[in-house]
Write a structure and sequence with these properties.
Blueprint: H1 11-19, H2 27-37, H3 43-57, H4 65-75, H5 80-86, H6 95-110, H7 120-129, H8 132-180, H9 185-189
Amino acid sequence: MLFRRRKKASMADRLREFFWPRKGLTRPARYLAKRILRLSASPHAVAAGVAAGMFSAFTPLLGFHIVLAMALAYLMAGNLLAAALATTIANPLTIPLIALATFRVGEVLLGITSSEAVTAGELFHRLEHLQLSELWQPVLKPMLAGAGLLGLVTAAIAYGVTRFAVRSFKARRHARLLERAGLSPTRTTALSPGETTL
């Protein structure tokens, strides 16, 4: 079989690979960043899409992050694919942290003082076993309030960083294309209207 291992991986090797991939944990994040930078859209559209995805990832609406992100991106004239890709910030590793952070911040914003310190496990236990009418006041209301603040802050930062990164990436790529064509970036600005750049 093509691309088959010469030596079959042991159970220990498979477990290690699952928890710590050979190519590292940052590889998927780097791939995602490059995928977003290479989108053929304006810097504003890509940045608005990423901001929409980041904001929706902070909401407790698990399973609807992509739908919410794409709706927000559409309203902001953002790139829909960038919005969908940015929602991956909410993944099995980060969702417990995001949920707990939004819950805690929401409690502070709403002035709720709880006698017991709720862990991420207890929070998800409540979300799973309580009915919606029982969830609203003690869980969902603080989480939505916290998600609003943390989501807006994260989205604003993501917008600025992404817009700058996309603009820089496109400028570097444009300069490389001009260099390959034998034109310098300064010469293209001095061309007459009848001349072609490439």
